[in-house]
Write a structure and sequence with these properties.
The complex is a heterodimer.
Chain A lengths: L1 H36 L10 H8 L2 H31 L3 H24 L2
Helix pairs in contact in A: 1-3, 3-4
Chain B lengths: L34 H30 L1 H10 L3 H24 L16 H23 L6
Helix pairs in contact in B: 1-2, 1-3
Classes of the chains: A mainly alpha, B mainly alpha.
């Protein structure tokens, strides 16, 4: 398993790095509006019809796919290192594939969610 | 036929005769000194993981129709969700400030024939992109653009 993880390390690192960079760029405005300002009534949120129309464009789908997929890989890879740093290096061969599997399942679901818009 | 070698291929089969002290965690790990920011940076992974799944939930609801969309938006008004999103916002900003701070320092002296721009230029570019994307995203989501 460790050998397999090492084989996929460049791909995981690419997704992790883009999760930190692009994920942070995209998430700041997203969390600010969707998670804080709109629920508190401080700012309006797009209506369903407008949101759907925008999201269904090619750029909208790509942005939403990035917003779902990249943070998942950033999260999975960082959580792997939390486990290692907290004394779980011996269990890395079990924990790492589990975390990456969660990210993979979420990514596939995210791509399906974006395609079916 | 050349092939990729295993990174640990040169590791000796048996431990050497030189005695070494067993590895120990630094005394200040995990929450003192410089380790605090390091540990918190790692733990933001949990926030990002949850944010990814919450974004998935929203997009899935968008595909399901107006009733599902309204249901999720109503749930987001719950104080627990709002509290989580405030914590998430702080985490995302923390990640941005920390990552953009060390990104310019991590650049190689040359990328092929090209020399990277000076560190302050890279840093300014990253912050400009961050502010720009955040402003555009905010304007789009609040309906100020493209409605």
């Amino acid at each position: 398993m460790k050998h397999l993880l090492l084989k996929f390390e460049p791909l995981i690192w690419l997704l992790f790095g883009q999760g930190v960079l692009l994920g942070t760029l995209l998430l700041t405005g997203w969390v600010l509006v969707v998670g804080v300002l709109a629920p508190l009534g401080i700012a309006p949120l797009l209506s369903f019809a407008d949101a759907h129309e925008l999201a269904a464009t090619l750029i909208g789908r790509l942005v939403l796919a990035g917003l779902i997929v990249l943070p998942l890989w950033k999260g999975a890879h960082h959580m792997r290192h939390v486990f290692i740093d907290m004394g779980g290096a011996d269990r890395d061969a079990t924990v790492a594939p589990l975390l990456y599997l969660i990210a993979l399942v979420g990514s596939v679901a995210g791509i399906i969610a974006v395609v079916r818009l | 036929m050349p092939r990729a070698s295993h990174p640990h291929a040169m590791q000796p089969r048996n431990p050497g005769s030189t005695r070494t002290a067993p590895p120990q965690m630094p005394p200040k790990f995990p929450m003192q000194g410089r380790y605090r920011a390091y540990t918190l940076f790692d733990w933001t992974g949990l926030i990002y993981l949850l944010l990814g799944f919450l974004a998935l939930r929203i997009v899935w609801a968008l595909g399901d129709g107006e009733a599902a969309w309204n249901f999720v938006m109503e749930q987001f008004q719950n104080p627990i969700y709002i509290g989580f999103h405030v914590l998430s916002l702080v985490s995302v900003i923390f990640v941005g400030v920390r990552f953009f701070g060390f990104f310019p320092k991590a650049q190689p002296p040359r990328i092929g024939p090209v020399k990277p721009p000076p560190q302050p230029v890279i840093l300014a570019g990253l912050y400009a992109a961050w502010v720009g994307v955040t402003v555009v995203m905010t304007l789009i989501l609040t309906g100020a653009l493209f409605r």
